[in-house]
Write a structure and sequence with these properties.
Number of helices of chain A: 6
Strand order of the largest sheet of chain B: 2-3
Number of strands of chain A: 1
Number of helices of chain B: 19
Largest sheet of chain A: none
CATH class of chain A: Mainly Alpha
Number of strands of chain B: 4
Helix content of chain A: 55-70%
Oligomer: heterodimer
Shape of chain B: globular
Radius of gyration of chain B: 26 Å
Helix content of chain B: 55-70%
CATH topology of chain A: Four Helix Bundle (Hemerythrin (Met), subunit A)
Strand content of chain B: under 5%
Structural class of chain A: mainly alpha
């Protein structure tokens, strides 16, 4: 049954099928989803490390005595991290609009929302750098400091990746215009951004709220 | 570049015509050959993205690492041949057993199984290339760099020396100064990146690129095995990558985190949890693809449909799930709550049930089939004998009191070599004999195959069976020598003699491959009379795999093909185009253009390798590396995008016909 032996066979003609579908039928959509499985697993493991450290330290977080002033109950500050959380949640608005306008292949709107999304993304990165101060510990003070810095840092890494991807998209759409492939990429990247924000809601609750209220 | 693109645009609708006549077959094939031609030359070597080339390269590379790690094993056996031997000192011995274990697990077993998947899965599901061909090439180079790094380390006397599972505190900053353990953690991270990208590609290929009609319940068992394994990779590998990164951060000057430092709220036991949460699923990541090979070989050589297809798929999935719930049985010697230990004992014994079901399904198939007793099947018989023995000692070790007694003895070494060599290496050799004709168009010699099998089987049992007794007699693993009064000398001598026999077996295999590659008996497209789609194309397959993608009418695509079943036409012959189908029923959903060859995956792998190596010395490797990666990825995306299908501004390009059978309407069938 090699290819020569197929001469005279009936044909299932697929030439009229579309070349892009912009939904979960796309292989790249699945590739992205599986990538998110990997990333989620990684964060779940970081969370379990956090709880392991919690089990080892009593009181938790441990009093901060290495530097002055001494803090006896060094729960992380809430103000700045909460502002950043709200910022990330609000960023979903341009992200969703970007997703929708990419599906409609509306180039002008895509450019507009792309700029807005990047602006929010960069703002979140800048705020994140100040967020580390809210933890009161350095990464090398103790295991609590190590894991909180790692969680914040790993999430920061994702913010960087997204900013890089978005700036590539910006460069492409402004020089070459929008096309099927990039419209598809934008919808897939939107899923990635929803995940970045969604996982941060959980991580924020763990790092900032749990030690204060549990 | 631009001209070429325009030319393609002009002839955009030059697709395979609906009439399959001798003339169209010939002319379209010529175009396909041009479109899919593999790049030549030295630079071409680094730009290939064809799954068959990358898959075969992965398999060959993994076998080379297998040989290197095997030589290390032989050195260990020579050292232990007699009491108070002075061939190897303690320091080099530590490096050798660590590199042996690390290489066998990370550089041989996982990659070789994935290499088979990369080569065979796209063929078996009837598509033209793997889902993300450039990522596939990237994965190979990252793996290669990781492997070279490990052995370069050993040669430069920076071979890791804390065991393949690198327990803290022995591997921590206090007890393992120098770069040896850092090297280990970078090798692990690099090879796991390769495993993860491979898993993503394989799942996506199977979910989205199956031939029309190959619904989920018609996927070949080998492909199911690859899918289950890939999901396990996705959930297991992040644990070890993360753990080894945490370890490097604990060890690194100017970073000095405290994840595993008891004094500052860290926990050495945490390392064991993280490692074995990966480490036990790892065993199944190696074993399940081997069961896929066994299923494929048994179906072909018993010449009947597999008995119990559905139970076999379910047992693979069950093994995948239970495999994540048994890791603590590696940690019975740590102070964990007894109730917890009992739960893990129960789970470890539970896993016997799906494996037992598998074995009985295979036996039933063999029992009722008409056996074609060729080398691949003989290796499967060897697998039964050895793997069942290893499974039995596994049940023994699942019991906590016995495990405490035998922990860290040669009994454990015997157990896991029976499971891994029996469960994975024997099916693997069988698989090489089975698929070699597909790769090269030539058979491996049957006579040499029998010699290969006998030497390997006898040698293996001579090496590892005495180790059970040595372990029961109390010989600890990872000792570089022992005193004569222990009485362990005779059995150790026997084991070393067995190692020689086993090496001869491997040499017979190498000789067979070297001879048959060019001079073996020529093989036809389907020399074994097999049932899966890789046998529907010439041996070796053309770069585009299928000129006409087949439609599938049953579980055994070739055996159950309907008379005059239609084949897919209408794909572009000027682009690397294939058909994407729906996830459940494999109804055609759209045409999917695969990426072209490119050097960029190789460049990215070099940058990633450089980042990991520099991270051994300075934390600044990370930010600098990120910028470099960004630049290379920018080039990757940009070059990927040239030649896209543009649409006019603001206007939606509707497909000329409604996307058909994805939404229930049948496609047009001509002829």
């Amino acid at each position: 049954m090699t290819d020569e032996e197929l001469i005279g066979r009936k044909a299932l003609d697929v030439s009229k099928l579309p070349s892009t579908l912009l939904d979960y039928n796309e292989p790249i959509w699945w590739g992205n989803l599986l990538l998110l499985f990997i990333e989620t697993t990684m964060f779940v493991i970081l969370v379990s490390v956090y709880f392991s450290v919690w089990m080892n330290l009593d009181p938790f977080p441990p009093p901060m005595v290495d530097r002055l002033p001494v803090i006896y109950n060094p729960v992380p500050d809430l103000t700045l991290p909460t502002i950043n959380l709200i910022l990330l949640l609000v960023s979903l608005v341009p992200a969703i609009l970007l997703d929708l306008s990419a599906r409609k292949k509306d180039e002008a709107k895509v450019k507009l929302y792309l700029i807005l999304t990047i602006a929010f993304n960069i703002a979140a990165i800048v705020l994140r750098f100040y967020e580390f101060d809210a933890l009161h510990f350095k990464w090398d003070d103790n295991a609590y400091g190590s894991i909180t810095w790692t969680i914040l840092g790993t999430h920061l890494l994702h913010l960087f990746v997204m900013a890089a991807e978005d700036s590539y998209m910006l460069a492409w759409t402004f020089t070459e215009g929008l096309d099927e492939k990039h419209a598809l990429d934008l919808t897939v990247m939107a899923v990635y951004w929803y995940w970045i924000v969604g996982i941060w809601v959980l991580l924020y609750s763990l790092v900032y709220l749990a030690p204060r209220f549990l | 570049m631009k001209d070429e693109e325009e030319k393609i645009q002009e002839r955009e609708d030059w697709r395979q015509s609906a009439d399959i006549t001798p003339e169209t077959v010939e002319s379209e094939r010529r175009e396909l050959e041009k479109t899919w031609a593999e790049p030549r030359g030295i630079i071409g070597w680094f730009t290939v993205t064809n799954h068959k080339t990358i898959g075969l390269r992965t398999i060959i590379t993994a076998f080379i690492f297998f040989l290197c790690a095997g030589i290390l094993a032989a050195l260990m056996r020579l050292q232990l041949m007699k009491p108070e031997n002075t061939l190897l000192g303690p320091d080099i011995y530590n490096q050798i057993f660590t590199v042996h274990g690390t290489a066998m697990m990370f550089l041989f077993a996982v990659p070789v199984m994935q290499g088979f998947g990369i080569y065979l899965v796209p063929l078996m599901v009837g598509t033209r290339n793997i889902a993300f061909p450039r990522m596939n090439a990237f994965g190979y180079y990252v793996y290669l760099i990781g492997g070279i790094l490990l052995f370069a380390g050993l040669i430069l006397n920076v071979g890791p020396d804390a065991g393949w599972f690198a327990y803290v505190p022995l591997s921590g900053p206090e007890y393992a100064p120098g770069k040896r353990v850092d090297l280990w953690s970078q090798v692990v991270s690099l090879t796991e990146i390769a495993a993860l990208v491979g898993a993503v590609e394989i799942i996506t290929t199977v979910f989205k690129q199956r031939a029309p009609g190959m619904s989920l319940n018609r996927i070949p068992l080998f492909v199911w095995a690859q899918v289950v394994t890939s999901f396990m990779v996705i959930f297991a590998m992040p644990a070890v990558m993360l753990a080894s990164s945490l370890l490097s951060m604990d060890r690194m000057m100017h970073v000095s985190t405290h994840f595993f430092n008891q004094a500052e709220g860290g926990d050495p036991i945490l390392w064991q949890h993280l490692f074995w949460f990966f480490g036990h699923p790892e065993v199944y990541i190696i074993f399940i693809p081997a069961t896929g090979m066994v299923s494929a070989i048994i179906t072909t050589f018993a010449r009947r449909r597999m008995f119990g297809y559905t139970p076999l798929v379910l047992t693979m999935i069950a093994t995948g799930f239970i495999g994540f719930g048994v890791w603590v049985h590696h940690m019975f010697a740590t102070p964990l709550p007894q109730l917890g230990q009992s739960i893990f004992t129960a789970a470890s014994m539970l896993i016997v049930i799906p494996n037992g079901v598998q074995i009985f399904c295979w036996l039933a198939t063999l029992w009722t089939g008409k056996l074609n007793l060729k080398t691949p099947l003989i290796f499967v018989f060897g697998f039964f004998a050895i793997f069942v023995l290893g499974g039995l000692t596994g049940v023994m070790l699942a019991s906590v009191p016995l495990d405490l007694q035998l922990h860290d003895t040669f009994f454990v070494v015997a157990h896991f070599h029976y499971v891994l060599i029996g469960g994975a290496v024997f099916p693997l050799f069988g698989a090489v004999y089975y698929w070699f004709p597909k790769w090269t168009g030539r058979f491996l010699s049957e006579k040499a195959g029998i010699v290969n099998f006998l030497l390997l089987f006898v040698g293996f049992n001579l090496v590892f069976f005495p180790m059970h007794i040595l372990g029961l007699n109390g010989m600890p693993r990872r000792v570089y020598t022992y005193v004569p009064e222990t009485g362990w000398g005779d059995l150790n001598f026997l084991a070393t003699a067995g190692a020689f026999v086993m090496s001869l077996g491997v040499l017979a295999f190498l000789g067979n491959v070297a001879y048959s590659w060019k001079r073996g008996t020529a093989a036809s497209a389907n020399p074994w009379g097999a049932d899966t789609l890789e046998w529907a194309v010439e041996s070796p397959p053309p770069p585009y795999n299928f000129q006409y993608i087949r439609t599938v009418q049953g579980r055994h695509a070739i055996w159950e093909q309907a008379e005059n079943a239609p084949v897919v036409t209408g794909l572009s012959v000027l682009r690397r185009e294939t058909l994407s189908t729906t996830i459940h029923d494999a109804a055609p959903s759209h045409r999917y253009e695969l990426q072209k060859d490119s050097i960029i995956p190789f460049l990215l792998a070099v940058v990633v390798g450089g980042v990991f190596i520099s991270f051994m010395f300075t934390p600044w490797g990370l930010p600098v590396g990120m910028v470099l990666c960004f630049l290379v990825l920018f080039g990757w995306f940009w070059s990927n995008s040239v030649g896209h299908r543009p649409f006019t501004h603001g206007e939606i390009r509707e497909p000329e016909a409604p996307p058909p059978s994805a939404h229930g309407k049948p496609l047009e069938v001509n002829g």
